[in-house]
Design a protein that fits this description.
Strand order of the largest sheet: 4-3-2-1-5
Number of strands: 5
Distance between the termini: 20 Å
Helix content: 10-25%
CATH topology: S16 Ribosomal Protein, Chain: A
Number of helices: 2
Structural class: alpha+beta
Number of domains: 1
CATH superfamily: Ribosomal protein S16
Strand content: 35-45%
Largest sheet: 5 strands, mixed
Amino acid sequence: MSVKIRLKRMGSSKKPYYRIVVLDARDSGKGRSVEYLGTYNPKLKENQVLNFKTEAANEWIKKGAVASVAVKGLLKKAGAKV
């Protein structure tokens, strides 16, 4: 089973926030996630934007999970190894 680390859009219209989740690569982004890693809210102040479990993300990457382009940028901001 190949897995991806990607963003899952939540929130209402014009007030988005995102969950960073691990999903099966064959499922859509709206499906059930394997694990919840954190949140990303672009509407908040700079220091409140990202809540993230970097250790769990590093473990998934070691297991072979592929991060999306957007999540790779967020991982670098959080200090995780990409």
